[in-house]
């Protein structure tokens, strides 16, 4: 693990400059070294000021988002695809301008429960749009990572195997996968095997519990997850993601179906998550060191 991070929605819905600055300070206070902002709207915020604050706190910034249906690059409508490509390009530039180092999430389709099957033409449109976005991202020094999510949040990439096929179709060496334990728990036959399958194509990792609340309160076997991350020698960022109706963003809370409180107090949640992840990582390292494996 390179840096341990936390999703800004633990702290704020992200509607105001003050909210984002508070989230940066809170993350640093709790010992997190990277923060994830979602649906960053450059026109609403002073990106330079956020960049400066993040730098002074030694907190790196990543941004994740999903496309709206009217800018879905997996659409068969050329106008919609073009609008999606513009949105992705704007997002890459915003990540650069905030001093961030990665753009992730559901960049390859809309973030929604689809009411239709994906199509081959839509897949190809999306792969071409991501390839184009990757070129820009590379020139901006921004990593591009695609989040594989569950069936209720996209119809295109629900498994690691699909994600790897998609990356192959982009033909780009600058696109990696963004995996998430919450989504893998729903879709993968074997989440640990999925991590091993991703191997060096894993570019970003979300740690989330099966109910999106406190780590350890759900059904995910984190021992197997951390063993797999060690097995592939994962050296990129690990970010804790948790949602509750205590913090609401109109877009993300609806898209992710956050209808209830899994927690109400974010300080103990953040403190617990950091301890939990560090403990699980240490345990996995010890298992590895003391195991009979060659
Ligand atoms: Mn996630």
Walk me through what this model shows.
The longest helix has 25 residues, at 266-290. The protein is globular, with a radius of gyration of 18 Å. Helix 2 (47-57) links the parallel strand 2 and strand 3. Helix 8 packs across helix 10 (266-290). It is an alpha/beta fold. It has one domain: TIM Barrel (Alpha-Beta Barrel). It contains 10 helices and 8 strands. It has an 8-stranded parallel β-barrel, surrounded by 7 helices. The chain binds manganese (II) ion. Residues 147, 180, 206, 241 line the site of manganese (II) ion.
Topology (elements, then pairings):
Layout: E1 4-7, H1 17-29, E2 34-38, H2 47-57, E3 60-67, H3 78-97, E4 102-110, H4 120-140, E5 143-147, H5 160-170, E6 175-180, H6 181-187, H7 191-198, E7 202-207, H8 222-231, E8 238-240, H9 250-255, H10 266-290
Parallel strand pairs: 1-2, 1-8, 2-3, 3-4, 4-5, 5-6, 6-7, 7-8
Helix pairs in contact: 1-2, 3-4, 4-5, 7-8, 8-10
Bound molecules: manganese (II) ion.
């Amino acid at each position: 693990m390179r840096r341990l991070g936390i999703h800004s929605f633990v702290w704020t819905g992200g509607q105001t400059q003050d909210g984002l600055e508070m989230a940066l300070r809170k993350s640093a206070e709790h010992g997190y070294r990277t923060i994830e902002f979602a649906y960053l709207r450059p026109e609403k915020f002073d990106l330079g000021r956020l960049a400066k604050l993040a730098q002074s706190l030694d907190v790196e910034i990543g941004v994740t988002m999903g496309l709206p249906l009217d800018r879905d690059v997996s659409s068969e409508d050329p106008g919609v695809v073009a609008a999606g490509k513009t949105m992705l390009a704007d997002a890459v530039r915003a990540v650069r301008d905030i001093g961030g180092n990665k753009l992730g999430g559901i960049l390859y389709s809309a973030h929604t429960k689809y009411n239709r099957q994906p199509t081959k033409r839509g897949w190809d449109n999306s792969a071409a749009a991501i390839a184009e976005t990757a070129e820009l991202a590379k020139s901006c020094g921004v990593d591009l990572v695609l989040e594989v999510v569950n069936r209720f949040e996209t119809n295109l990439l629900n498994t690691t195997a699909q994600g790897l096929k998609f990356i192959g179709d982009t033909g780009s060496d600058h696109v990696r996968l963004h995996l998430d334990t919450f989504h893998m728990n729903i879709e993968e036959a074997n989440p640990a095997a999925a991590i091993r399958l991703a191997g060096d194509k894993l570019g970003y990792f979300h740690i989330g519990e099966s109910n999106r609340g406190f780590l350890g309160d759900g059904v995910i076997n984190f021992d197997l997850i951390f063993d797999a991350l060690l097995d592939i020698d994962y050296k990129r960022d690990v970010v804790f993601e948790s949602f509750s109706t205590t913090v609401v963003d109109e877009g993300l809370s609806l898209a992710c179906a956050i209808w209830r409180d899994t927690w109400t107090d974010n300080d103990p949640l953040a403190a617990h998550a950091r301890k939990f992840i560090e403990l699980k990582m240490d345990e996995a390292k010890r298992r590895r060191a003391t195991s009979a494996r060659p």
